[in-house]
Design brief:
With 361 residues, this protein is an alpha/beta fold. The protein contains ten helices and 21 strands. The termini are far apart.
Amino acid sequence: MENKVFYIAEVDGDTSFQDQTLEIKTYRRYILVNGVNYPHSIEDSISSFKMQTDNYMKKIIKNREKGSYIIICYIDILNGTITEIEYSDNDVNGKELSKQIFSVIQKKDYKEIEGRIRFTNNKNIISKNTIYEQVKKIGIEDPCSLVEISIFSHAYWKGPILLNTEEGEDDCDMRIDDTEYLSTDDDFLRAFSQDSIFKIWGCSFPPTTNALYSIFRRKGALNPMLDDTQIFTFAANTFYYYNDRYGTRTELMPDINNALKTDYKVTAIIKLSFAEIKKILAFNYIAMYASLMAKNCNIKVQAALPATYSSTYPYFHIADTVLGNVKAYKEIFNVSIGEFNFGIFDKETVERLTNLYYSLK
């Protein structure tokens, strides 16, 4: 009887054969994206998150199942390379399978536009579309084998910021609208294994949202044991975000009115029920890129929860100063928490919070 080893992505059915022994070994693909640490002023330099990405890759290689077979697609946006590396059995060095070359990102590619620094050269560079195409390629050539995408970059609630471009025709960053067309792209969807996860390691930290949650917390209004009918009264001129660095203040009323479909004025006394406060928190959760990727594409996503930011050194992790917001989502909504206090966004949870948002009065 001949013994054979097959590397496969998934098994569905009987693995016994009359004249052969089928030895099953894990076969998995990973996409790791090293984003650009873009400049925030003309004087700033540019860099990347190479240390964090490389250390994470080493962790994958070290912790993989004994005798497993993996292929890592390492996407380095700053240096313009996409490298596929195969690690078979217990090999720790790997074998390069392919390498694609794109333009290197340079400081001169960033210009000041209306007071903001933005990437302006989208010619032959690695962008979101390049990454999505890598996923589609796997869906065509090797379906159900992609177990993880990890994006090491800045981010906000609308998605990972790969280069920091303006939204529009030449946009290179991942956006909420992407999840709509990807949800109908069979090649993209076929790439993912049943246990796959999309990890977004950057922030989701609108300062105004964090300021709003802090006001609620100081009022005792984020206690999960509260009754939905309990009313909290906020004095006039309570809802401001004060930026001590720049000496500015910003109204928080859009954060309330957009969620509740109200027209409260910051100068008025405002009364909110616990149900309404929960509605504001749920609104911010279901509006995110992570939520819509999970809901529209049925892909589990790990990402920063609303009003939380990610510290990057020595590895990406949610900062201790915003763990109160993580606690609120965990205790009030029973949202699962993943590695380093990032939230888990799956289709079932997103749909549950969506239904809750529309049911709360």
